[in-house]
Structures are given as C-alpha cells and as structure tokens.
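DATA SHEET
Item: assembly model
Revision: 1
Owner: S.N.
Input lines:
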Amino acid sequence: MTAVDISALGIQRDDPVRARPAAAPRDVVAIAGRALRAVPRELETVIPPIFIALFFFVVNIGTLQHLTERHLNGFDIKAFMLPTAILIGVTGVSRAGSVVLDIQNGYFDRLLLTPVRRLAILVGHMVADVAIACALTVPILILALALGVRLESGPAGVIVFVFMSGLWSLAFAGFGYAIALKTGNPAAVNSSFLLFFPFLFMTSSYVPRSQLSGWLGGIATWNPVTYVLEGQRSLVTQGWEWDSLAKALVAIGVVGLLSMSLCLAALRGRTRRG
Amino acid sequence: MNLTSNGATPTAISAERLVRRFDGTTAVDEVDLDIRRGEIYGFLGPNGAGKSTTVRVLCTLLSPTAGRAVVAGYDVATEPEKVRLRIGVALQEAALDPKQTGIELLRLQGRLYGLSGREIAGRLADLGRLIDIGDALERPIGTYSGGMKRRLDLAAALVHNPEVLFLDEPTTGLDPVSRARMWEEVRRLNRELDMTIFLTTQYLEEADELADRVGIINDGRLVAEGTPDDLKRSVGDDVIVAGVDGRADASGDAVRRLSGVRNVEVRGDELIITATNGAATIGDVAVALNTIGPVRSLLLRTPTLDDVFLELTGNHIRGEERAAGESESASDHDHDHDELVEVGR
C-alpha cells in the first residue's frame, strides 16, 4: 500500500457523512439485493432444481400417460403433473446455505455489527428466495404450455399459480433457515431436504387423492402439500375454484407459521448477545 | 470510575468491572477501562487472554455478564444500536463474503449504515484510494491475498466514518511488509482524523509502536496499564539477560546481592536481571556469575513489554508469539533495543 495523505482524501473529522439507521424496507432491499447478485455466481444452486423439475415432469408424463388417461375418463396427465413438477422444483430453494457460509466466515457478525435490523437479514434472504422460486417456475410453465397444457384460469391464473409456488417455497424454506441459524452447519441444512420426501411424495403428486388407498390416503389428507397441489391444479384444470385456492393458501399458511416460528426462534438465538 | 452515557465526554471507551463468562469460564474478569477520545489504546495479551471477548462485548456482539461498558457515549448493553452507529470494527478474521466483489461489499456496508447513494460514492472514492487495491475492488473477494482482505476489511469498518475503531489483531497472519503498511494506516487514521482506536494484539512491538497507552491482559484480568515507556520503566531502567550453563539458581543468588540490581528472574538457564543502570552494573554481574560457573552470553538491553508481562505474570508473552509462528519481525524489532550484544560468549 502506498502512503496516502488522508487529509487530501476528504476523510475528515467534520465529514458530514454520518451513519444513521436505514428504513426497514431499505435494509430488506439491501440484503435481498446481495442475495440475488450471488445467484449468477452460484448457478449450482438453481440449475439442479430446474433440471429435476423438468426431468420429473417429462418422465412422469411418459410413464403414466397411457395408464391414467386410459382408465380415468377425461384425465389430462400433463395438466395434472404440472403443479407436481413445479413444487418439486421450488421446494427447498433457499439461501439458507449461504447464511451458514456467512456464519462460518464471519460475515454474519459483520452484518450484526451494522445497525441493520436483525429481522431484515432474514427477510431480505427470503424475499430473494421468493423471487428465485417464481423465476424457476417460468421454464417449467413454458415447457408445459409447449406440450399443450392450457390454464383454465387464464393469464391471471398464471400469476396466481406462480405466486402460490413462491409462497410455498418460502414456507418450506423457513425450515432450512431455522436449521441454518440454529446450527450454523451446512450438513444440517442439507438434511432439511429429508422433509422434502414426506411432504412431496406422501400426497396426491402422482394420482388424484381419490385414487390413493389405505394409509397413504390417510396421510395425504393431513399433508398440507395435498391442498397446495389441489389448489394449483384447480387453476390449471378447473379455472377459479375459490374453495380449493383458499385451502391451498391455508395449507401454505400453516406450514409457513410453523417454519417461521422455528426460524424466528433460531434468529433470536443466533443474535442473542447473552 | 464514574461511567456516563454522554457523547460530549472526553472518554471514548469506558468499562467498569466488566465481566464476561461462558459456561462457568470467565473470559473477561472485572476489567476497568478509561480510554480518551483520539487515543490509540493497545490491548496486549497472549492467545486466550480475553482480548477478543472484550472487543466483542465493547462492540455489542456479546452482552456483559456483569459490570458496565460505555462506548462513544452509549451503554453497550442498553443502547447497542447507538453504539453500532458510532463504531467501526475489523474483527480478528477478516469478515468478508468471498463471492461479493470488494466494491459490492463496501456499497452494501454503506447502505446498511443508512448512507445515501451519493455519500456512498464519495466514501468509496476516498476509501478506494486509502486501501489502494486498485482494480481488484471489482474482483470477487475470494481472489484477494490476505493483505488485501485485511485492507478491505479495514475499509468496510471505515465506510460510515466511525468515531471509534476496533481492530482485533489486525496484523495477525500478515507478512512484515503488510504489517508495516497496516501500522502506517492506523497511525494516519488516528493522527489525521483524531479517531479513537482500540487495538488488540499479541505482538509486543505492535503495541509498543502504535499505542499511546497499553493495557496488558492475562487470564481475563487487566494486569497493568500505562504508556509503553511507563510500563517498561516500571520494570527497571535496563535489563541484563545472562545465559549460564547450569547452576542458574546459585548464579541468581550471586547476582541478587549486587548493588544496582533491582530484580532477578531465573528462567531455565537464563537470568533476567533488571538494573537501575545496566552499563554500570553489567561488569559486576559478569564477575559475580563467573565465580559460580561459565557465562554463555550476556546481553544488556532496554526493557520491553515482554519484560513487563514476565514480571507481572511469570510468563513470556513472546513465547506465545513464537508459537504462532510469527516471531521473525518481533525478534528483529526487539534487537533494535539492544545496546550491547553478546558480551562474554
């Protein structure tokens, strides 16, 4: 470093630049902006979910189309599978892993040393997650439209469909953040993926709930993802079925309430100074 | 000590019987501090002495278990938000996100401190020249060298023009050239901006070179405090280090009887003798030691902070330094104080 004359740099004691608390939305936007800027540098976090969703969408249609459409009169497997593929893609999309890295490399402490609101650190990441999840639904929707799927609810239904996917992604992401903040351990965060299987496969992902039998049908009735899938399917195949949409939003709300409660408790624990 | 939460006081950092415990272990044990505005305060101690924990309490990352601390006029326990607005902190490990570019990190830092876009742009221009890492600011931080990361970390701590700057072992792991550059920046920040700087270090020469006053911490307790010169004077005017081959205790007894000798510490085959006038005493010391056995080496030097630490704790702080593999420059520096070297080898 060459010697510099700081007085010539305008850094002076009477420098008018003085720190002040930023407004809460500004905190959130600043944190979300950082999280979104990181996405192109970490494509490994977004390409696999898109690939897996597209893969399951295509393979499931190829596997089940003849079987289901022959036996279920008027059944459209492509329309039926679209919400399944989207939820497979967006469930687990979160920046919780990067929060763990921040904790491990000390950057989380740097954030805590600033006047930023502690909640804004979390909310900023989650806003980014919703944006990423919504963006991830686009290529799957495009493929579905290319394969002939039409949303009965029209363009507004597409927006609600995408928004609902983002909300579900956020509700599920809360578990990952809770584990990240509680443990600061990347392996533990990855283990949150285990929740993915019961949530997404013990439900009506492959056949309508009426076709599920025995214990699986019972579990599917209690699985909130069942109602998210049914709400989204209603937008695709039925149009505006307010009852299904309300149940879907309540299901997302219940999961979100649980995950966010855990998340906020973990944030309090992580930022507690005692 | 009377602690007041008043930004107008001349005190930048004060602590009264500050305690921090972790699961029954006391990391900071009733530490009192009174650091004036515009002062560079060196907090010196070996690894695990409680330096970093003290910093984390003072900069609001940890709450005190007991006692009280006021930084920039505000209580760290009850008004942490106000403290955060007024301090800059460079922690022991450069706390940086390797995937952001330097410029992105500094901009985000500015936004979180509530600065406007124009203010941030101005500060980036200033700080870019200050840390002098050129075009690298546009590169991901993961590609930076250790020295560049430290400088960027320092810039991040300065974005909002803080009143008090905490530097937690800012030169640990740096090569001697980078260390010297960091010292120069610290001096300039203090001199030009009148910034109060609380600097923790395990390097004797760093505290000696930079600090207006030094606090020596050991096992969580502040064992001594004063200007480097005062602390060194407290040990004695001069130090004679004698290497003897065996019979060190007997040699020590022989030397203690000499006039002008203030204190003798026996450490293995080495005697550390403090004397009011080393030049006048060293001859008598050599003669006295020769009556007991052969003298391997005899060195007269001015006292160092290590001598202060030794007298207070019975241990060398320099041993910790060497253990950390960072001793070369420290040893070189210590030799600068030598007045007579290798008498009677």
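QC remark: Chain B has two domains: 11-230, 232-340.
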